[in-house]
Each structure stands twice: as C-alpha cells, then as structure tokens.
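Entry 14. Structure prediction run on the chain below.
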Amino acid sequence: HMAHSEWFQEKELKIIENWRDVHRREVILRQLREKLRLIRRIYPSFGKTVFLELKITNPYDREHCFTMKMDEDPELRVVRSLKEWLSLKKAFKVDTPSEHDLISDKDQLYLRPRETVYIPIRFQSFASGVVSDSSVGVPPAIRERSIQISFENEKKIPVSVFEIEIHPRPFIVERTFHFFEGENDFLKKRIILDDIFEGKDP
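Output returned:
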C-alpha cells in the first residue's frame, strides 16, 4: 500500500513539473512576443487599398526556415503574386527589393544567413456602413481591430511580431457631379475617377 502511495505521489509530482515547464514556456514566449512586438497603424476607408511591407531579418548565421503565423482576417492578406506586388510598389512609390515565390503555400520563408526581406501586405475593405454607427439594420462598417502577424523559427519561437492596428476612417465626399439631359435621352459621359490606391497614414 505504501509503495502504491509513493508511486501515485511521484506521478502527481511529474504531472505538476510538466505543467510548470509548459506554463513557464508559455510565459517566456508571451514575454518575448511582447518585447518583439512592432505596431503598424493603418487608416482604411471604403474600397481603398492600403499597402505595407513587413521587414524580416534572419538573425542567425545559417540558413533558416521561418513560419508565418497570421490571425485570420478576410480583409488583410499577404500579396503572393509578384505582378501584383510590383504594381502596388509602383502605385505607392515603394522602392524595396522584391522576389518571386518569397513565401511558400505553407507560409514558410527560407532565408540565407542574416538576410533581410520584405513581406507585402494588402488591406482592402468593402464594408460600406458608417464607421461611427453601430445600429442594427445598417450595413456593416470597417471594424477597428488589431491583427497579429508573427514569424517563428523551427522551434516555434518568434523572431518577429507585428501588430497591425486598423483605424477606419469615414467616407470623404470630395466633389459632386451634376448632369442635365433632356427627357428620354441617354446620358453619355466619361467620368475618370482617382486611383483607389492610398497611403498608410492620413
């Protein structure tokens, strides 16, 4: 009976020790994420494209494979097409290196020792509601929120953590068009609208 009691007590101690190890790792990772966290703020409005790049550097003296972890959000995505990336860089006048197939389909990133790359991110929302209105029955507005993107090494330890803060802006009416045409006549006009691309800051 004593041997069984000692075995049970030893098993409980191992469970507690394992729990402490896991808990300690979680605390350390949480503190590390907080220390590495870099905040990027964007100010989108309806239909406007917001483009930004995240700078990632391999901190090791050897090649390494990193994994990208990103909160699921239908309005924020990584630009995987080189053609689209180059088009966005031209529209936003961004002059940084770009390359084909930078991130794999499994969200993995292979970097040479101390190599630095830029991860293209695009945000666009067609939520047409009034930003300051949360009433029931109106179209949804762009939600103010934060989206986290992190890059982890092979041991699942983060090396870069980005927090994208989304601060929506209301509609801006810049001009009004007035058209006058006779009754039962067809209106034939060509209206040239500004590009939908817009910078990050207001």
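Residues 9 and 80 are 54 Å apart (CA to CA).
Filed with the rest of this week's runs.
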